């Protein structure tokens, strides 16, 4: 099947599904919700082919939309540079498919810059245990180069809680210690949202969620300015984008399987969610209504009528309303003129129309005294189609 045919078939199936429900199914859009409940006009989720999980012996594969920062290839060192100005090549090394810190060489940063993301990486502290507290298997993951998720060998190694492995360093300890033994691979899965400011005022503090080896250790933790060493941080704006930095803290910590997925905008910065501001909802409902009217223009008969009526649930439009009312009048006139012994053949169409009329009146899209609504109700009751059999 060609891509064009598949796309056309998908659109046909979606349209058929919407019409099968009559487009009048779940609660209608309201002042802060641009879509109806169970709305077939809502965009379908983007298809992402999932990756595979890692084992100690082998890193897993990333999802299909991931941007790979290090996947084990020697030439991927070119995606990184020393954290210096002016920039220069890093002295970190790639050995046996692993990115390894060379103690004393300094931090490393990705050439790629990004902000809100799902980040995956795996790290391993030396199997030979040396040092204690902050001196054992220490490194760090700096989102946007600004806020650190601590990397530290805390397997039977106490330290200050807000500097523990997977702590938001200087801000919040992890909820659990889920580390494997030294020398084994540890997996960090991080969801990061940067702070948002508008006109110098904080409108969203930013958050980090962290899973360590599949165990939740940070649950939507506020950033409080990003944290730091010894000093309490304060709310501040972050840049639009920034690199991922990995810390050289004097220990030969290793990394593998580093990738990220950009996240969509939050509602506070113009993103689309189920609940939005009244202004954003009005604009979105107008956009949806326009799209439905454009779809209606490609249809004929009752299918066109229902799409026009459906568009009115999102935003009123005089030509669409006039055309829909005219079609509704014609449909009820046709039903009323159908001989009694022929009505049963129109039961399905009549009940679909009855359902649409009930919905549109319930949600104030049409007035209570809308003539086609009264006419179809009378027919349905006379035929006893409203009674369960």
Walk me through the structure:
With 389 residues, the chain is α+β, with helices and mostly antiparallel strands. The chain has two domains: 3-44 and 275-382, no CATH class; 67-269, Exo-inulinase, domain 1 (Jelly Rolls, Sandwich). It has six helices and 15 strands. The protein has helices at 3-20, 278-296, 301-311, 318-337, 347-362, 371-382, and strands at residues 67-70, 80-82, 93-95, 98-100, 108-114, 117-124, 139-143, 147-151, 186-193, 196-198, 201-204, 207-212, 215-222, 242-246, 254-262. Strands 1, 3, 4, 6, 9, 12, 13 and 15 form an eight-stranded antiparallel beta sheet that branches. The chain has a five-stranded antiparallel beta sheet with strand order 2-5-14-7-8, with no helix packed on it. Strand 10 and strand 11 form a beta hairpin. Helix 2 (278-296) runs antiparallel to helix 3 (301-311), helix 4 (318-337) packs parallel to helix 6 and helix 5 (347-362) crosses helix 6 (371-382). The longest helix is centred in the C-terminal third of the chain and has 20 residues, at 318-337. It is elongated and about 95 Å long. 35% of the residues are buried.
